[in-house]
Design brief:
- The chain is α/β, with parallel strands linked by helices.
- The chain has two domains: 175 residues, Aspartate Aminotransferase, domain 1; 272 residues, 3-Layer(aba) Sandwich (Aspartate Aminotransferase, domain 2), CATH 3.40.640.
- The chain has 13 helices and 18 strands.
- Strands 4-12-11-10-9-5-6 form a seven-stranded mixed β-sheet, sandwiched between helices. A five-stranded mixed β-sheet has the order 1-2-3-16-15.
- A hairpin with a 2-residue loop joins strand 15 and strand 16.
- The N and C termini lie close together (10 Å).
């Protein structure tokens, strides 16, 4: 095991400048000294010393199709040479055709007419969805959301994100949320199957509407004070918790009975991360609004947006100027998004991702059998989780996972004569879960490599 890594003289000059000139508000230094990266390709990034790191989190699932994907990069380059920029109030072919692709797909899957509205990223698109919701519900600003849910860090998005630390210094600006328990079966009551626990969570939520004295429902007029329920079908920052398959269909029935909209936040799980274009597709429900971002452009351009049912977003109810961004629907982003859709329509990404996810999950399950500190593993497609616990296999152990992350970033592990680092992401209610979001085009040998590197980290952690 190597000693603490020291920054090179060149890197230290840059780190000194960062310490003086850069806001720390948009940066988290998980390791010291922080790495400075110089290039990327496929599933790998390289630092300034040309040390390679296998990346199993891919920029929080923004780079689903691999770093420097040649096809998507070329789409961006070609657009730069034709129509690189145009004000968002003007039309261009890319915006119209990308909207059509998303809307036609939703019609096919959900049987619902709808429209697409673009913005510059996930949090901003959440803000737009809040406007659509409030507009459709006569200005209601109360929302339901899940414990463990994450929807962004703008003022509106942080108000419906369960972590108080994101709004502690800023307060609320309009929206407020009531946070409902998510069916996190591994840490739920004992004696219930996963499906039984999902039904139990829905029943507990439904109790809120039994009487006016639970504070959300007026039975005399049949109205709820709450406008929408914001869901991540698979929790992201909450650590890729996979709910039971019966959960959302049962929840949607309660919402429909009480006139509450369902907004599906697909910012982290969209674009085939779970083997479907939208993760909500796994659960046989029809969302009212879908919010997307990140992997739409494979991280090449900050473009996100929403799809909403026609009744919520048609020009009569949501007229021109209802919300706007200078860079929304920019032609560089829409060009890459269009190429991404063409690429995923040519290959069965659903089958490919599910097969690779099954293979990766089986490898994690094998590690779980051999390392008692792995309390839980689970996954859907290539959204995978590995929960690090104490010797009892249940007590959260954040310290051990922090150690593993730091060891992975030393870049000193050796597999088949090759020295490598491993980039992992940390999530979960107790910050003790490895959330694995590898490239969707990761090869099977790279999956095996990732498992071997994880095994080395687990060995180091149990021997320290």
């Amino acid at each position: 095991m190597s000693d603490i890594r020291i920054a090179t003289a060149e890197d230290q000059v840059l780190l000194d400048k960062e310490a003086k000139y850069c806001s720390y508000g948009d940066t988290v230094h998980y390791i010291e000294p922080p790495r400075i990266f110089s290039r990327c390709e496929g599933s790998y990034v390289w630092d300034t010393e040309d040390q390679a790191y296998l990346d199993l989190q891919m920029w929080y699932s923004a780079v689903n199709f691999g770093y420097a994907n040649p096809r998507l990069n070329n789409a961006l380059k070609q657009q730069i040479d034709t129509l690189p920029q145009i004000a968002s109030q003007y039309l261009h072919k890319g915006k119209i055709e990308l909207s059509e692709m998303i809307a036609v797909d939703a019609k096919k899957k959900f049987g619902l007419d709808g429209r697409v509205h673009f913005n510059v990223g996930g949090s901003q698109s959440i803000e737009d969805s809040l406007k659509v919701v409030r507009n459709a519900t006569n200005g209601k600003s109360l929302m339901f959301a899940f414990e463990g849910g994450y929807h962004g860090r703008t003022l509106g998005a942080s108000s419906i994100t369960s972590s108080y630390r994101y709004r502690r210094r800023y307060g609320h600006f309009g929206e407020r949320a009531q946070f409902i328990p998510f069916p996190y079966h591994f840490r739920g009551p004992k004696g219930m199957t996963k499906e039984e626990y999902g039904s139990h969570c829905v029943q507990q939520f439904a109790r809120l509407f039994e009487t006016e004295y639970n504070g959300v429902w007026d039975p005399k007029v049949g109205q709820s004070e709450y406008a929408a329920f914001y869901v991540e079908p698979i929790q992201g920052t909450g650590a890729y918790v996979i709910p039971p398959m019966n959960f959302y269909s049962e929840l949607k029935k309660v919402l429909d009975q009480h006139g509450i909209l369902m907004v599906s936040d697909e910012i982290q799980m969209g674009f085939y991360r779970t083997g479907k274009l939208w993760s909500i597709e796994h659960f046989d429900v029809k969302p009212d609004i879908i919010v997307f971002g990140k992997a739409l452009t494979n991280g090449l351009n900050p473009l996100g947006g929403i799809w909403a049912r026609e009744e919520l977003i048609n020009p009569k109810v949501f007229p021109p100027g209802s919300t706007h961004s200078t860079f929304a629907s920019n032609p560089l982003g829409t060009a890459v998004g269009l190429e991404m859709f063409k690429m995923t329509n040519e290959v069965d990404y659903g089958a490919m991702v599910m097969a690779k996810g099954k293979y990766f999950l089986e490898g994690l399950q094998d590690l779980q059998k051999r390392f008692p500190i792995i309390g839980d593993v689970d996954g859907l497609g290539l959204a995978l989780r590995c929960e690090i616990c104490g010797p009892d296999g249940f007590t959260p152990d954040k310290a051990t996972l922090d150690y593993m992350v730091e060891e992975g970033m030393k870049g000193d592990m050796v597999v088949d004569g090759r020295k490598l680092g491993l980039i992992l992401d940390v999530g979960g209610y107790y910050k003790n879960v490895i959330t694995l979001a590898p490239s969707l085009v990761i090869s099977y040998p790279e999956i095996e490599l990732g498992l071997k590197l994880l095994e080395q980290l687990l060995v180091r952690a149990t021997k320290r």
